[in-house]
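Practice problem 4.
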């Protein structure tokens, strides 16, 4: 076979070399085109920035420092933002509605559980996300969501990130106040009776000094207050209903989250299952009954099960689940939602909006929260 001319040899080598490099050349060109396309899109979206609205409770001691931190953080990140202060005649719900009218994409509650729940009342079912910057004593919902407490920078990073979780929103409707135009939201626990009486009588100065323990101090004053009596109708997830008539109780609670510092009031409550956990609590025998009730709560906390201690003799916790409950009692009783007092009523309804609220949470906790919820089911 005659030798291939040098020109043909060179041409063949060039072809082979080109075929070998072709995939790499295509990849480089494709990446360059994508990068150019992305740059064009970003240039088009110069007016499409996220608008953050921070709903701040100015009555909190750290409020002004938090205001400065928010301004500095947003300016350093070139965020579009506004800060709206709550007022005595303008709660978090009204401020959040104003923010949404102003075009806010993400509404951030900067305050305690009261500010969080009133902002959630407006943001739920809007397809807008809610962030939380915790200030206050309890911050129970923030803790349940794994949001950093007492670290404003970390909380700001979470509120302006893309990690999120859809959670249920509980509602309380005061049915003997027809002028009320909305259901009062709760994210943790709402109740009628002793728990609300205890919260209503808590000394604010003592609460500031010893945090949530101040509630127990107030509770001691009302251990022997008269019981409440009435009818309760529960509606199950499958639509069936059951009415308990003429029951007496110390307190009746509906829970979305059941965890409080150190204790679990409703260990089987899951915040995104579209179901409320109900507890009807009663005691007898004076201090013995209250001691037994405390033992029941400790037993629930340790076992993680909604069951009374086998040692209980003078306490009763009737636990059930459902999507709604209507309560009619013989005399007015105080009502609380996440630690806020709504006043007194003889007729109310608890209900739940399933996964109605999108909450910004640490991205690292998304998978673990999902897994934990699956384990609870």
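Answer key:
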């Amino acid at each position: 076979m005659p030798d291939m001319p040098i020109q043909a040899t060179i041409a063949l080598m060039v072809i082979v070399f080109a075929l070998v490099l072709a995939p790499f050349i295509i990849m480089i060109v494709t990446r360059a085109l994508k990068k150019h396309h992305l740059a064009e899109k970003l240039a088009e979206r110069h007016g499409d920035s996220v608008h953050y609205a921070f709903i701040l409770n100015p009555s909190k001691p750290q409020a002004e420092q938090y205001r400065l931190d928010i301004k500095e953080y947003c300016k350093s990140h070139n965020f579009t933002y506004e800060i709206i202060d709550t007022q005595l005649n303008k709660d978090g719900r009204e401020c959040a509605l104003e923010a949404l009218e102003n075009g806010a994409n993400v509404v951030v509650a900067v305050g305690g559980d009261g500010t969080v729940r009133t902002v959630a009342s407006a943001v739920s079912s809007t397809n807008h996300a809610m962030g939380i910057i915790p200030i206050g004593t309890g911050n129970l919902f923030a803790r349940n969501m794994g949001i950093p407490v007492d670290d404003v920078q970390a909380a700001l990073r979470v509120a302006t990130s893309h990690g999120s979780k859809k959670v249920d929103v509980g509602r309380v409707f005061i049915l003997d106040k027809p002028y009320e135009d909305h259901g009062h939201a709760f994210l943790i626990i709402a109740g009628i009776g002793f728990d609300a009486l205890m919260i209503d009588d808590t000394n604010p100065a003592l609460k500031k000094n010893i945090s949530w323990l101040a509630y127990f101090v107030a509770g001691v004053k009302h251990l022997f207050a008269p019981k409440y009596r009435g009818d309760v109708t529960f509606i199950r997830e499958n639509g069936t209903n059951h009415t308990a008539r003429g029951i007496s109780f110390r307190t009746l609670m509906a829970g979305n989250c059941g965890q409080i510092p150190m204790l679990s009031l409703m260990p089987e409550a899951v915040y995104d299952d579209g179901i409320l956990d109900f507890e009807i609590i009663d005691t007898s025998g004076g201090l013995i009954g209250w001691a037994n009730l405390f033992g029941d709560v400790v037993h629930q906390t340790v076992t993680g099960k909604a069951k009374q201690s086998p040692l209980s003799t003078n306490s009763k916790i009737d636990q059930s689940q459902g999507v709604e409950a209507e309560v009619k009692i013989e005399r007015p009783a105080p009502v609380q939602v996440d630690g806020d007092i709504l006043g007194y009523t003889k007729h109310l309804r608890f209900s739940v909006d399933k996964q109605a609220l999108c909450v910004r949470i640490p991205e690292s906790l998304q998978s673990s929260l999902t897994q934990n919820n699956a384990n609870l089911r």
